[in-house]
Structure formats: structure tokens, C-alpha cells
Amino acid sequence: MTIRTCILLFGCLAGCLLGVDARANIVLGGTRIIYPQGEREVTIALSNKGSAPALVQSWMDDGAAHSTPENSSAPFLIMPPITRIEAQASQTLRILFNGTPLPTTRESLFWLNVLEIPPVSAEAREKNNLLLAIQSRIKVFYRPASVSGSLHEAAESLKWAWVKDGAQWQLRCTNTSPFYVSFAQLSTLKAGQTLVNGDGTQMVEPGGEIIFKLTPAAHSIAGLKEGQVRFEYINDYGALKQVDALVQ
């Protein structure tokens, strides 16, 4: 899940995205959503952990990080698209697929955006003010009914190979499965040196590949063997699962 701060003028519901971290009062009931083909709808809970009401606008996009409700493109409807959530209260967000044809042999990836707009007092409205609003984005995976296997099986079936970049070793990961696989930590042992992923969280798409840039670790990893990669992937429930694999 990603969180951004938006600067909004009064009366606007979507503004310029800035790379500023902030704490959101609106908390989503998950870090990802799986939408199985054939489901009428899926839901996610929004909870207001703050001490004041908040206005929330939600929409879907197909990967455009700076999308707005007006220019986003995704085959889903959000109900309600705009809602007020009282302090310490919750609201269920309904996501409905509109039936647009999507690939049937692999997952499709979309994003749910939840924009939290703080309340404005009557006194503040009489002054020139800017509002800081918090936008959260989480992944939504549309999973066709024809896709067989599981995400865990997909993680275990990933293919790993050494890649040399000058004097530095890197790892190429190839995904032959129909699932998206999202990574957290990654470690490997090459020529007696422990190497870790220096790029942070990454994701490999179905039928795709990515290169992990490796940097020396500050300490060794217990139980890690030469030529082995140990990684954590994020499962359907947002939990981290560890897998050990051999590098070819």
C-alpha cells in the first residue's frame, strides 16, 4: 500500500500529488484485494481512527499513479464513490466489476484509490487555506476463474538466474505463472558473500521478469546456503510468506 499527501483547494476532491508522507486517519481493512471472476462484488472496510469526521472519495485506476476520478480508466464501479465517515466509525466500500472483457489466462492488476479530505471549520473557511489530504492506494487483482494453482505455488515456481553487471552480481527472476508475485525481503549467498535486495519492494507480473539489484548485507543470514535465494512474498491476505529456491 502506498500513501501520499495531496494539496487541495477548497471545493476540490483531487489535487496535485506530492511525495510527502503523512499519517492517515482513514484506515483500509487490507493491503490488497482479490476480485475472483464471477463475484457480484467485493468489499473492503474503511475505518476513521481520527477524532473528527472525514470526507472520503474512492476510485479505481489501471496503474496511472496520478489518476483522478475524472480521468481514471478501470472496469469497476465504487459504491459509494464519496462518503462521510464519522470519527471512530466505519464504512463498507463496495467494488463492482462492470463486465469489460479482461484476459482469462492471467491476473489483471488495478489500483483502489482512497482520498481522505480533512474537515474545515467555519472559521477556517473565512481565511486563505490549503488542505492536506491523504491518498492511499492498494492493489486490486482480478483473478479469472480459469486460472489454476495458487499464489504460493506461483512463488515456488519462480525461476532464478545470476546476472553479472560489471563486477556486481544481480538476480533475474522469471515468472511463468498467471499470478502477480509481490516481494518484500530477498537474500542470497554468492561466493561466500551475503547479498540482499537493494531496491525495496518489487513485483513480477505474469509471464514477466525483473532484475533484483543486490548489495552486500551487513550480516550473514542464518541457514542460507551458497547459490540459494531466500525471499518473502506477500500472499492474498497481506501476510509475508518465506520461500527458499535455488539459483540456476
Automatic annotation (TrEMBL):
Predominant place of localization: periplasm
Domain of life: Bacteria
One cellular component (GO) term of this entry: outer membrane-bounded periplasmic space
The Pili assembly chaperone N-terminal domain, residue ranges: 26-147
Any GO BP: cell wall organization
Subcellular location: Periplasm
Domain Pili assembly chaperone C-terminal span(s) in chain numbering: 174-240
Keywords: Chaperone, Fimbrium biogenesis, Periplasm, Signal
Family, per entry: Belongs to the periplasmic pilus chaperone family.
Entries under PANTHER family matching the protein: FIMBRIAL CHAPERONE YADV-RELATED (PTHR30251:SF2), PILUS ASSEMBLY CHAPERONE (PTHR30251)
Protein name: Molecular chaperone
Classification lineage: Bacteria, Pseudomonadati, Pseudomonadota, Gammaproteobacteria, Pseudomonadales
